[in-house]
Amino acid sequence: MQTKSLYAAIDLGSNSFRLEIGQMDAGQLRRVEYIKETVRQGNGLDAERNLTEEAMTRGWECLARFGERIAGFKPSQVRAVATQTLREARNRDEFLAKGKQILGFPIEVIAGKEEARLIYLGVSHLLPQSDERRLVVDIGGRSTEMILGRHENATTLESYRVGSVGWSMKYFADGLWTPQAFKAAEIAAKAVLDEAQILFNRQHWDTCYGSSGTVGAVSDVLTASGWPENSITREGLVWLKDRLLKTHKPDNLRLDGVKEDRKPVIGGGLAVLQAVFDLLQIDEMHVAQGALRHGALFDLIDREGMHDVRSSMVDWLAQRFGTDHLQAERVSRTAQHLLHALIPDSLDNPVAERQRYFQKLNWACQLHETGMRISHSDYHKHGAYILDNTDLQGFTMDELHRLSQLVLGHRGKLRKLESELEDVSFVQQLLALRLAVILCHARRDPDLSGLSLVCDARRRTAQLKIQPDWAELWPQSAHLLREEKNAWLKTDWNLQVQTD
Questions:
Q1: Sign of dihedral through CA atoms 150, 152, 156, 157?
Q2: How confident is the model at residue 1, as a pLDDT?
Q3: What is the CATH topology of the domain spanning 308-445?
Q4: What are phi and psi of 354, to 5 degrees?
Q5: Domain residue ranges of the chain, discontinuous segments joined by +
């Protein structure tokens, strides 16, 4: 099959890894293939929050099978997202580095609120059009996401560190389902979810939907036992817990609809689901067809269609911190002009990849003065801190950190960015940004006619040539550019500034 109109999303969950391949057909996304593998990485976190070698190996082996299936896809057609287990894992970089190599595509660790946004995006796209106010709940392996929204717009998003795998390990560690264990698990879940009573109380929604994971598993069991299809009620939860208590342990469970891989974690998931019902006064939860992976697919398509939520969030953050929009645009135009010189068109720089570099540089330019509202002194440090400690919809944790490092490095010494300077594309973006800030120091459009800039990435050298008459016309700018070369002397990169 031609891959041109295909899109693939991979959800690296705490309990399962899932691959969803869809195709755009007459404006609709049609499923081409769906693969789910139970990997249970959430069980593989040790006491130090490191993934065990066995857990990493299970994940890599699954990614190898997924990678074979999506070989030939372009980077713009694939999005792989990792959730709570890899958010927690202290050695996640080791897993991700090899995982990326095996899969053939980047793997993004997303924040809890971004996970919630993608879940709602997936759920809402696959629901009928309605004016209803929706509550969406997704109980995963190690986290639970809750979202309020209307149509395709999410208004309140939260992620809580409670899930079926984590709660099963903690409260049913001996493998036994007892009244005492269920009571303890439900009380503990309510303690974690306590804030949800305010944010998601019954007055804020009309219809409740459950997505994926635990909700799907519980619904399957209830439906197979004669309860209404695609619906979970309080009575159904009571009935299911009673059945688990009577069987006492997973090995004894004989219920239609319960898959073998779900038995060890259904107790923890049920306890969390019961806590959600109690706290939010839910009488009935409808089972949604959409999930995180579908949201990732729709997000890919939106980005390709130039409806990128990340750009909207950058504008929102800049407005919130009162940045100088005209100066940001001025710096962005100048920086992108310089980046064109640093990254010439070639087969080594595909168009799509270049576009991403320029887009991310533009975001950094829009946000480089974000910290000004806090303090003019060291404002670049304040701006970097904001980006490293905020949730912006659409961004991964790594993307936000990359932006924070560009903002941090746009002025001052460069030794603070020593590890990032190993990345050639980062250096090119950073150099373009630093030079643009210098050239726009007077907050007016700079004269670029007397400047030329080239980069030899293999030799880690950039050369800036200044025409003598330009230097005479703009002496302060010429002085600052000559000073800039000194900032690079303590790095592995060399900036040469020459006046002909």
A1: positive
A2: 47
A3: Hypothetical protein af1432 (1.10.3210)
A4: -60, -40
A5: 6-111+295-299, 127-288, 308-445
